[in-house]
Design goal:
The longest helix has 23 residues, at 102-124. The protein has helices at 34-39, 102-124, 164-167, 207-218, 261-267, 293-297, 301-308, 345-349, 369-374, 376-379, 394-397, 415-428; strands at 82-90, 155-160, 198-204, 225-234, 282-291, 355-356, 359-365, 402-412, 435-445. The strands form two sheets. Strands 5, 6, 7, 8 and 9 form a five-stranded antiparallel beta sheet that branches. By secondary structure, it is an alpha+beta fold. The protein is globular and about 75 Å long. The chain contains twelve helices and nine strands. It has a domain at 290-442. Residues 1-22, 47-74, 301-340, 372-398 are annotated as: Disordered. GO terms for molecular function: heme binding; metal ion binding; peroxidase activity. InterPro entries: Dimeric_a/b-barrel, Dyp_perox_C, Dyp_perox_N, Dyp_peroxidase, TAT_signal.
Length: 463
């Protein structure tokens, strides 16, 4: 799919390369009993924990983002500097290993959404998340790591994966385009950071507040869901300018502007072909894109710019002008060839309606045993890779264990547009010589809700 380009990018495993990291990592050793699962949900928007004082926002800090409304925050929200992405799967067995019924799983899902919605609403206001459903006697209600910190534009955004609707017995409520992404010819996907039934995106301008928010959500999941994967991303300070990915190119130039008709048409779901509960929601395509930075850094500036289709310094298309000048794909150079190569990233992803809201990640060198062999056989088969080229020899650059790149996030009304673009790029994109798609997932992002309700309440009108 649109990989890191001049149109917008962004995290690695929670275990930072630990061999203990797996596809279905248990998020905690605590086990919630069935009785707690049935009745321990927190009321959405309920009172704060009396023993935990409110955090005192710093004077002049930005106003808090809103949890309630028409659309979930964290999409049209001006992009924050840091992000934490995580996927969870619902538990299918009780603590004794007995398989749960579909009805029981659906009930647990509702309890989890109630807990997460209530915690998210309070956290985004700069309040403590409230006491955990299960805790040891005398344990503090909150970790305290965010005490004294303002919300820092914290947003928590939630999504539902394709498998979830079967798991909770709500197949008829599945959004029309919510299907697992097809395999693409250039994918090198790893199960350790692909898929998921539930999705959480936590963004903000303070990484400690983000960490605190994730701990609050994770602490409400035992017995109901377990962590599948997590990734963390960042952006440099950019103000109103387009952020840059780790290739040094501006990333997000072609994004529609929030509040415009073009944005609404590209992002928000509406119309009779989707379930009514999903109106005002959107789809998220998530891709972890690993960049071969040693190879990129030893390539010529011309190779880099022609791979993207834009100039690195200004972000202008190679056909001329400034960053926001429409590209002229028909303009030819002195050699008669298009100045924007037809197999450049820009040429292949043009006119795809989507919001790119991605983040960079840099996990540096990963000392996992499987990482050393994992990519050895990939790299030599990539265009431009050669064991005879000392500049691109993996043993010399360390790319085999050097995990950096982009956490690509595309919010869009129709994931089919992404699929069509990704197929074109898999077949011809010059960037394929520098990147690998190693993680992939798709989620339906529900609309926001009114106070007193949780994000999945519309799927259970009887409650």
């Amino acid at each position: 799919m649109p990989s890191p380009s001049a149109d917008r990018q962004g995290a690695t495993p929670d275990g930072r390369g630990s061999s203990a990291f797996s596809r279905r990592t248990l998020i905690t050793s605590l086990v919630v009993t069935a009785g707690v699962g049935a009745g321990g949900a927190l009321a959405v928007g309920g009172g704060e924990a009396p023993a935990s004082p409110a955090r005192n926002p710093a004077a002049g800090s930005p106003p808090a983002e809103q949890f309630h409304g028409t659309h979930q925050s964290g999409i049209a929200t001006p992009q924050q500097r840091y992000a934490y992405f995580a996927a969870f799967d619902l538990e299918v067995g009780d603590p004794k290993g007995k398989r749960l019924s579909t009805e029981r799983i659906a009930t647990n899902f509702q309890h989890l959404m109630e807990r997460w919605s209530g915690a998210a609403e309070r956290l985004m206001r700069g309040r403590p998340a409230g006491p955990l459903p299960v805790n040891r006697p005398g344990a503090p209600a909150d970790s305290g790591v965010a005490d004294g910190l303002p919300p820092s534009r914290l947003t928590l955004t939630f999504g539902l994966g394709p498998e979830l609707f079967d798991r909770i017995g709500r197949q008829e409520q599945r959004p029309r385009h919510l299907r697992e992404l097809p395999a693409f010819s250039t994918d090198q996907l790893q199960p350790a950071w692909s898929g998921g039934q539930l999705f959480v995106q936590i963004c903000g301008d303070d990484p400690q507040s983000i960490s605190h928010a994730f701990r609050a959500l994770r602490g409400r999941a035992p017995g109901l869901a377990r962590l599948r994967w997590s990734q963390q991303g960042f952006l440099g300070r950019f103000g109103d300018a387009t952020p840059r990915n780790l290739f040094g190119h501006k990333d997000g130039t072609a994004n529609p502007r929030a509040g415009t008709a073009a944005f609404d048409d590209a992002v928000w779901v509406s119309g009779p072909d989707e379930p009514s509960w999903f109106t005002g929601g959107t789809y998220l395509v998530f891709r972890k894109i690993r960049m071969d930075l040693p190879k990129w850094d030893t390539s010529t500036a011309l190779q880099q710019d022609q791979s993207i289709g834009r100039r690195r310094d200004t972000g202008a298309p190679l056909s001329g002008g400034h960053e926001f000048t429409p590209p002229d794909f028909g303009r030819a150079g002195p050699d008669g060839e298009p100045v924007i190569p037809s197999d450049s990233h820009l040429a292949l992803v043009r006119d795809i309606p989507m919001l790119r809201r991605s983040y960079n990640y840099d996990y540096a060198f990963q000392a996992r045993a499987e990482a050393a062999g994992e990519h050895d056989h990939h790299g030599a088969d990539q265009p431009g890779h050669s064991h005879d080229d000392p500049l691109h020899d993996h043993a010399g650059t360390g790319h085999d264990t050097y995990d950096t790149g982009a956490l690509f996030c595309a919010y869009l009304r129709d994931p089919g547009d992404f699929i069509r673009a990704q197929r074109k790029m898999a077949a011809a994109d010059r960037l394929n010589a520098f990147i690998q798609h190693t993680g992939s997932a798709i989620f339906a992002i529900p609309p926001a809700v009114q106070p007193g309700r949780h994000l999945a309440a519309a799927l259970f009108p009887q409650r």
